[in-house]
User: Which sequence fits this backbone?
């Protein structure tokens, strides 16, 4: 009996071993098949007059663009999978056609975000009429007039930021740059766009709004992103796994952030809806209010005669608890209207777009100033010359031309968005090459802005490149950190306003420096990792000295 049991165990063990072997071989065979199928020879671009390159196992846009530009010149094509042909070009004449002159043929991006969260329906990802309608509705909120009206909130946040720098100077502690600057940019977007307080500038711990903004995206390594792109791909299969199979692990957006923002936005929208229906005078004249006004106005216009408007308690009650089953109707693209779900999507995208890019720019700018003390002194002198009052006016900021050059040189070297894309609607020929309908165009912003053809010694930080005389000699498309054409970044003016205001308030009080205790140390360099946006391997910490010390 005992022997039989032992034999049974052995048989069971063999079965288990065989099972594991079969499973391992199947997974290995699948992996080899997937890798080989993605590396197969493909020459489709050649019939369109474009060099077709195998990019091997390179999958992420930034490394692919870097490889193609370095090894194969300004324009080359590759295929990402059986269906999609991708053209990478840094040819500025061709880019002028794609981004500006023939914009109608390239109005869409190819990007979609693998997420169930409303973020994936934000302006950045919208196409055709939906994009036009929402862009038109959002644009007025970023006009110069609107920005002038919100500048007191920006001054207020910049003053608080400056106090954090001064406190570091007093105590001798190094300043954790990204942590503090992230708090600054979220405080501004929360207050100016949504009338919400996100007040943790200088605190060790972030407030909820800041915390959930900073953790909106799952931060994953390059290796993880690479493996995911090999096995799951970029687009439809991953979307299918997230939406249909419900694998939340693959979702790009964290569930907690998504839930948090949906809840607070639903409540804010409901409160503003009530105000909107009761009076035409608004306490908040911000981004959220303008979208809610459009929503209410279009509902009023559509309501059948005699039907009552919803009352205050109905609206507030309905929106207190987030309920994903309540979906609004998709509006007709040709009309000036927006649904509640769309407002939430635009709000989430705006919060993250404003946080990630602005804090990256301000961080790199302060780092480059610490690395280049002579440039920092020149910026300081200019602030003393131009800004007479406690808070700089819009006119003062416009006169800070050298500071503008420093900021542009920072954005040249460290563009927060390193690659942008467009998708061709129809087949068109430009000179010797044809771009077929459906082809994706990847525009390697970082490679263009570090191309020796446009910038001598491109790795060197030199704000003089952006002096009016030097700028006049260069093709404007050689500098496109905010993109270009009708689909240009909507928040560009706000970004300059935020960064310049912070630089005025901080640099007039303190100097930032690198020394033996900072990260990186004086004489060392930062290591950049590109996962869509540039990340620094070790967060920067700067030494701060009070002016006059
Ligand atoms: C230094 C700061 C910033 C940089 C470098 C930056 C960069 C960019 C780039 C490269 C694009 C794509 C443009 C194209 O494809 O041609 C973009 C789009 C966009 N950005 Fe920014 N951005 C910044 C700040 C902001 C801010 C502050 C906001 C909002 C408050 C914002 C909101 C958006 C939106 C909504 C889009 C999509 C526009 C569309 O598709 O119509 N960005 N940004």
Assistant:
């Amino acid at each position: 009996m005992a022997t039989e049991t032992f034999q049974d165990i052995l048989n069971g063990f063999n079965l288990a071993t065989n099972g594991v072997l079969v499973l391992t071989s199947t997974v290995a065979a699948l992996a080899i098949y997937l890798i080989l199928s993605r590396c197969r020879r493909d020459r489709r671009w050649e019939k369109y007059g474009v060099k077709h390159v195998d990019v091997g196992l390179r999958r992420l846009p930034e490394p692919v663009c870097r490889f193609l530009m370095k090894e194969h010149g300004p324009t080359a094509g590759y295929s990402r999978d059986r269906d999609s042909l991708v053209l990478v070009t840094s040819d500025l004449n061709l880019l002028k056609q794609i981004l500006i002159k023939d914009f109608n043929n390239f109005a869409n991006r190819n990007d979609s975000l693998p997420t169930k969260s409303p973020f994936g329906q934000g302006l950045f990802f919208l196409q055709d009429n939906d994009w036009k309608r929402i862009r038109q509705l959002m644009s007025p909120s970023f006009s110069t007039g609107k920005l002038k009206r919100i500048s007191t909130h920006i001054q207020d946040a910049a003053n608080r930021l400056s106090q954090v720098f001064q406190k570091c100077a007093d105590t001798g502690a190094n300043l954790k740059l990204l942590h503090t600057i992230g708090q600054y940019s979220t405080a501004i977007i929360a207050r100016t766009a949504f009338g919400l307080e996100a007040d943790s500038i200088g605190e060790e711990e972030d407030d909820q709004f800041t915390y959930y903004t900073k953790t909106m995206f799952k931060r994953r390594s390059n290796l993880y992103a690479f493996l995911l792109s090999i096995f799951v791909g970029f687009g439809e299969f991953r979307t299918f796994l997230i939406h249909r199979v419900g694998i939340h692990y693959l979702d790009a957006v964290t569930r907690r952030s998504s839930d948090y923002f949906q809840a607070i936005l639903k409540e804010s929208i409901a409160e503003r809806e009530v105000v909107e229906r009761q009076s035409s005078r608004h306490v908040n004249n911000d981004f959220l209010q303008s979208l809610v006004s459009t929503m209410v106005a279009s509902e009023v216009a559509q309501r059948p005669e005699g039907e009552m408007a919803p009352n205050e308690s109905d609206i507030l009650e309905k929106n207190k608890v987030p309920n994903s089953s309540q979906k609004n109707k998709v509006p007709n693209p040709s009309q000036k209207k927006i649904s509640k779900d769309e407002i939430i999507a635009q709000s989430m995208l705006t919060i993250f777009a404003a946080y990630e890019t602005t804090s990256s720019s301000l961080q790199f700018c302060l780092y480059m100033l610490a690395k280049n003390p002579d440039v920092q002194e020149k910026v300081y002198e200019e602030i003393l010359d131009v800004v007479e009052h406690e808070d700089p006016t819009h006119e003062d900021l416009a006169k800070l031309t050298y500071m503008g050059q420093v900021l542009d040189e920072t954005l040249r070297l460290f563009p927060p968005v390193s690659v942008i894309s467009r998708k061709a609607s129809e087949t068109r020929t430009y000179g010797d090459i044809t771009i077929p309908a459906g082809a994706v165009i990847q525009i390697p912003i970082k490679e263009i802005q570090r191309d020796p053809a446009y910038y001598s010694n491109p790795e060197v930080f030199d704000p003089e490149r952006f002096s009016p005389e030097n700028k006049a000699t260069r093709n404007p498309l050689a500098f496109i950190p905010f993109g270009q054409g009708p689909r240009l970044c909507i928040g560009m003016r706000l970004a300059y306003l935020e960064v310049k205001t912070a630089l005025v308030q901080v640099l007039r009080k303190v100097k930032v420096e690198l020394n033996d205790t900072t990260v990186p140390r004086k004489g060392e360099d930062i290591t950049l990792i590109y996962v869509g946006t540039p990340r620094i391997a070790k967060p920067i910490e700067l030494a701060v000295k009070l002016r006059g010390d």
Summary: The longest strand covers residues 541-546. Residues 102 and 487 are 12 Å apart (CA to CA).
